[in-house]
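Record format v2
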Amino acid sequence: MGILTDDMKRVVRQQRIGFVATVCPDGTPNLSPKGTAAVWDDDHLLFADLASPVTMENLRHNPSVEINLVDLYSRKGYRFKGMAHIVDRENEPGLHEEIFQAYENGIRGVHQVRLPARAYVLIRVERALPLVSPAYLPGVTERETRETWADYWAGVHQDRMEQLEERG
Ligand SMILES: Cc1cc2nc3c(=O)[nH]c(=O)nc-3n(C[C@H](O)[C@H](O)[C@H](O)COP(=O)(O)O)c2cc1C
């Protein structure tokens, strides 16, 4: 049995943005979103390098990485810390092809992404912790929380669509 539980896998597979933190050479953090965040196996998460020059450069020097995925409706998620392994076509053609096919066809529990990737990043998860909003006071249920935030996001969406409509 690996480090990733069924619920962790569920959250990663449902979400479409993971925030990836790496360490810059000067010790400052670098954080950027990855819509390709996915589960690879019981111990590894995955994302594609579509347009992440700083993340990739940092990982070449320091493979430490953290990725957070939070469900904006339930206000719950997970943070995963681990070590990154860069898979590029030149060095690992077999594994690169396997990952390419997973994204291309939306198989192996990886959602379909048909955008050109320069490389893939496998994260061997070493620490996985839950993230739960402090607003979960005793008695507050996930069902109530989901309804509250579903309303909120529906309102945000509606307002923005109206603004865009006005702009023509
Ligand atoms: C919603 C969203 C999803 C994104 N998904 C990815 C992704 O999966 N892979 C990627 O390389 N870039 C992705 N990007 C683009 C990078 O986050 C963006 O180019 C960023 O500036 C890269 O910064 P970095 O080089 O510091 O990582 C995404 C951006 C957004 C807004």
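The radius of gyration is 18 Å.
The chain is about 35% helix and 30% strand.
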